[in-house]
Design brief:
By secondary structure, the protein is α+β, with helices and mostly antiparallel strands. The strands form four sheets. Strands 1-6-3 form a three-stranded antiparallel sheet, with helices on both faces. A hairpin with a 5-residue loop joins strand 4 and strand 5. The chain binds cobalamin and iron/sulfur cluster (SF4) (2 copies). One iron/sulfur cluster binds next to helix 7 and helix 9.
């Protein structure tokens, strides 16, 4: 994430990024799919108990939000221009050095939770943020009050203890960073903690009591795509590059590329192997991994090797009680 440092102070000073900017219109867009069932948090947590199943975080199961939110903000800008005439503007969503969460918090879209995300009493935190920088002097909206109180559920649930203090995240430990942004090998000590999460992580949001108020989005854009929910790790690991590209067309997942996709699934397969009591199931997972052992990318090979070592370790552990007998 070197791009964040590279842009320096531009991140905090909108007028340096877009000269002439006087105000920022902030927006949030809910992303729970329209078909989301009641009790969805428990349903999502239950996926962790099925280690052979792949978990893709909720925001990434449909169409890429960058495209959806930007198009809608553009439309909003056009509607405003129809009313008041042309004005200077630029639309952003996670697309430039913009401190989105801070702008959202200061303009009343919600408060910053202990997990660092923005949340609101009527919307939880399952929404994206976007902005329109404008050269119009608009009246300021006020921040909302903070409602975390003595709760620390997000800090406690984080599998890698990435939330090092309220409102402070060590991104290097966050599964979202490790599986999406990070290009190299995943640190070995963190691999077992990733479980079966293969793209992003939702745990600090799933546990948050305010997410019982999270809203569904009526747009079909965020409908869950086939293959990205409830699939077996082995199935996704078997996707060729061509299949990966086809299944992730227009999805944010495509950006990580096939090799990182395989890297992430190899880690999850290694973890599944450690937890799998059934030898036949273990053999199936091991066979899938061995089929990728000669992959041309050393990143994939190393993670496959690590996962197969978990297999060997599990086999040894399974043998031990028999030897004692
Ligand atoms: C980098 C990044 C990440 C990193 C780091 C996250 C983090 N919390 O910092 C990683 C890869 C880990 C990540 C993960 C996720 N992310 Co992210 N991420 C971003 C991104 C691109 C930048 C965030 C950032 O700047 N972080 C750096 C820290 C240092 O900034 P900060 O927290 O705001 O805190 C500093 C500032 O506020 C500053 N500050 C405050 N006031 C002022 C004033 C001045 C003058 C100055 C100089 C500074 C300053 O001081 C603070 C301390 O240093 C934003 C989009 C964007 N452009 O903002 C999305 C964003 C925050 N992510 C988002 C999402 C959805 C996620 C995930 C939920 C995805 C997932 N399911 O896997 C996870 C959640 C993990 C978590 N608990 O945060 C959404 C959050 C929506 C929301 N409801 O808040 C955003 C806003 C994207 C979007 N457009 O919707 N993300
Ligand atoms: S996204 Fe997952 S790993 Fe990252 S802070 Fe939240 S719970 Fe921890
Ligand atoms: S889980 Fe608790 S501490 Fe964390 S953001 Fe939600 S209310 Fe705040």
């Amino acid at each position: 994430m070197a791009y964040m440092q590279a842009h320096g102070v531009k991140r905090a000073r909108p007028a340096e990024l877009v000269p002439g900017t006087v105000s920022v219109i902030t927006a949030r867009m809910d992303y729970l799919p329209r078909t989301t069932a009641e009790g969805w948090q428990a349903l999502e947590f239950s996926r962790l108990e099925r280690p052979g199943e792949a978990i893709v975080s909720l925001y990434a199961r449909g169409r890429d939000y960058h495209k959806v939110l930007r198009a809608r903000l553009q439309k909003l800008q056009e509607r405003i221009a129809q009313e008041i005439g042309p004005f200077g503007h630029r639309v952003f969503t996670d697309s430039a050095p913009v401190l989105e969460a801070e702008l959202a918090a200061r303009s009343g879209q919600g408060w910053r939770g202990k997990h660092t995300l923005v949340l609101h009493r009527e919307a939880g935190s399952m929404f994206f943020l976007g902005e329109i920088y404008v050269d119009l002097a608009l009246p300021h909206s006020e921040p909302v009050t903070e409602h975390c109180g003595s709760c620390s559920a997000c800090i406690d649930v984080c599998p890698t203890q990435a939330i090092v203090a309220p409102g402070r995240l060590d991104a290097r430990r966050c599964i979202s960073y490790l599986t999406i942004e990070h290009a190299g090998p995943i640190p070995e000590e963190l691999r077992p903690l990733i479980g079966n999460r293969i793209y992003g992580c939702d745990d600090c949001q799933l546990i948050c009591p305010w997410n019982k108020f999270a809203q569904r989005n009526a747009l079909p854009d965020f409908d869950e795509r086939a293959g990205l929910v409830g699939s077996q790790l082995v199935t996704l690991f078997g996707w060729s590059e061509e299949q990966f590209l086809r299944h992730t067309e227009g999805s944010p997942i495509r950006r990580i590329g096939h090799a990182r996709w395989l890297r992430n699934i190899a880690v999850a397969l290694g973890n599944a192997l450690r937890g799998q009591p059934d030898p036949a199931q273990r053999d199936g997972l091991g066979a899938a991994l061995r089929a990728r052992a000669e992959h041309p990318d050393p990143l994939v090979r190393e993670h496959v090797e690590w996962a197969l070592a978990q297999h060997a370790q599990r086999e040894r552990e399974a043998d031990q009680p028999q030897q004692r007998r």
